[in-house]
Amino acid sequence: MVFSLEKPKAKLLPFKGPNGEDADPTDYQVVPGFRVRIIPVLGTIPAIFGQVMASYVVTQIAGMLFQTEPVVNLDVEHYGILHQRLIEREELLCGSAEAVEVDKEEVAYVVRELWRGRSAKDQQSTNVGRGMWRSMNNLTLTRWDSERPPNIDNLVLLTFDEAEEHDSTTLDEISVRDPEYFSMVTATLNRAAMEF
């Protein structure tokens, strides 16, 4: 199903007949019981929704992964906070943040394009709207492989608790304990390496 969570920004005008008098929308039904459109719709919107649905069907038939985008785009301030958290985390774990070469724009790419604003461990999260904004308060970036620098292809977005657990676990342990998660993260980071 494709739908919009957007709330109307203006109230609808009363339904008027051809002579300007108040009218009953059911008087204009083509078929009895058929819904009458009384909410204005920008002409391109139904076509866009149709294209999204068609894209989903075609990718499913082709056996390809269909990644949805987060409903809420975070603002520059959120990416700045995540960048600052990464620097603080590096200082805490490594004693220095000198290895951090990613900037806020690259953090935005990692968060938005790779992890879709969600924890790498919870990519199926249904948080949308304000729920996604609130969940950002509990997320941080950390190295996937502690032996490599915190580059675009070595950063995962996790909750603070998940990051603490991750930092105290080796990649070999993760691959044995949760091979599906390990494969998903590895594939995502390999894609980042290819794109950059």
Walk me through the structure.
By secondary structure, the chain is mostly helical. The protein has two domains: 1-66, no CATH class; 76-195, no CATH class. It is 43% helix and 5% strand. It contains seven helices and two strands, in the order ααααββααα. The protein has helices spanning 45-61, 76-94, 104-114, 130-135, 160-167, 171-177, 179-195; strands spanning 139-143, 155-159. Strands 1-2 form a two-stranded antiparallel sheet. Helix 2 crosses helix 3 (104-114) and helix 6 (171-177) packs across helix 7 (179-195). It is elongated, with a radius of gyration of 23 Å.
Label this structure with key terms.
single chain; elongated; 43% helix; mainly alpha; two-stranded antiparallel sheet; 2 domains; 196 residues; 7 helices; 2 strands
What's the layout of helices and strands?
Elements: H1 45-61, H2 76-94, H3 104-114, H4 130-135, E1 139-143, E2 155-159, H5 160-167, H6 171-177, H7 179-195
Antiparallel strand pairs: 1-2
Number of strands: 2
| Residues in helices, as a percent range | 40-55%
Radius of gyration: 23 Å
Q: Sheet bearing the most strands, described? A: 2 strands, antiparallel
Mean of residue pLDDT values: 81
The topology string of helices and strands comes to HHHHEEHHH
- Share of residues in strands: 5-15%
Q: How many distinct domains?
A: 2
Count of helical segments? 7
* Broad structural category: mainly alpha
Uncertain runs are none
Described by the principal axes of the CA atoms, the overall outline is elongated
